[in-house]
Amino acid sequence: MTTTTSALSAEELAATTLLRFATAGSVDDGKSTLVGRLLHDSKSVLTDQLEAVERASASRGQEGPDLALLTDGLRAEREQGITIDVAYRYFATARRRFILADTPGHVQYTRNMVTGASTAELTVVLVDARNGVVEQTRRHAAIAALLRVPHVVLAVNKMDLVGYEERVFAAIAEEFTAYATELGVPEVTAIPISALNGDNVVEPSAHMDWYGGPTVLEHLETVPVSHDLAHCHARLPVQYVIRPQTAEYPDYRGYAGQIAAGSFRVGDPVTVLPSGRTTTVSGIDLLGEPVRVAWTPQSVTLLLADDIDISRGDLIVPSSDVPATSQDVEATVCHVADQPLTVGHRVLLKHGTRTVKAIVKDIPSRLTLDDLSLHPHPGRLVANDIGRVKIRTAEPLPADSYADSRRTGSFILIDPADGTTLTAGMVGESFASPEPVRDAAEDDGWDF
């Protein structure tokens, strides 16, 4: 049975939606306590987990449970020298389901925040009320802007340590919002909290009657999740060609994959890239049943009216909305591997389900996140560096701008020797786009 969203009430729709969000904050800003408090007060912690935390807290002489211990696994990994990765946590309330990407905040783990925030629709940036906006705060705001995260929450923590003063919160919120707006962050919601005491995390604070906004959880439950399919570029990367060739389905030929963006309907004229051949959607199978319409992020099988040579890696798009196809890609990238990325580096570029050979033709600039300055022509990018690259692919690539589609405007670079992921990339312009750099070698000597 298929239910259309138009038949759902606002409450029912919110209950069916999934919000992916990431947390970011410096090591001492109380991020672990915030996540622990959020899980605990939303009743998303199992009884045995809570009992283990209470025992561990009691053994340390603490009167109450240290909720930071709920997320202490990463801290233990760091102390043991194990590679730090993003920790994902899943929880739900009566109004919405959540996937939380708990990202490390230290400068050396910039690449991990990029990983966690790349699929997030909201980022919570934590700030210590005593310290205000610091270098790491600006770094996290810059990454959120680069990744085009639609919603940013500024959680000003430890308000209890500054006497719950409104002026302290207001000054931090004003400074951060001005900086984030300059970067192009579309929306900032500032919330004063005390994660330790639970003020404004799940329940409203009795100590800050001057604040009339939502709690952290209330905002997470009600923030609009961007699923307006009418304004998306419909894209289906083909993952698998289904041909049963059985007595029951002798002529069945379907093209399976997860819809990366937008929606497809039976009867839609479509174009297959990179070949450019056109046809019409004759049917859509979803979970073994025919449907008239399907949308992101559903996994479907499209049936086409014409017999076209299509294989894994091809992209099916509406004929009225075909992306440009090119062998030259310019993008903002975050280098995630320990080995440097250099000009002339031969790599594999994976875009959707398509993987092609490529070469790094130029690295026009490297971004310094501390002050957003650009270092021209660095020649290489090392681990955690963010910069601009120009890449030449062996085959034409149909890539959208990352500003238009985060799914089909992103790619990764892979080491062809061992399959290691080298770099995460975002196609097109960003605030990191460098000013044109004049090479001295191109100077013909004339002075106008």
What does this structure look like?
The chain has 448 residues and is an alpha+beta fold. Helix content is 19%, strand content 33%. Strands 7, 8, 9, 11, 12, 13, 15 and 16 form an eight-stranded antiparallel β-sheet that branches. Helix 6 links the parallel strand 4 and strand 5. Helix 6 packs across helix 7. The radius of gyration is 24 Å and the shape is globular.
Provide keyphrases for this structure.
448 residues; disordered N terminus; eight-stranded antiparallel beta sheet; six-stranded mixed beta sheet; alpha+beta; 19% helix
Largest sheet: 8 strands, antiparallel
Strand content: 25-35%
Describe the oligomeric state of these chains in a short phrase. single chain
**How many angstroms separate the termini?**
72 Å
pLDDT < 50 stretches: 1-15, 74-83, 432-448
* Strand-pairing-aware structural class: alpha+beta
Over the alpha carbons, how many angstroms does the gyration radius reach? 24 Å
Shape field: globular
> What's the helix count?
8
Question: What share of residues is helical?
Answer: 10-25%
State the total count of DSSP E strands. Answer: 25
For the residues shown, what is the average pLDDT?
Answer: 82
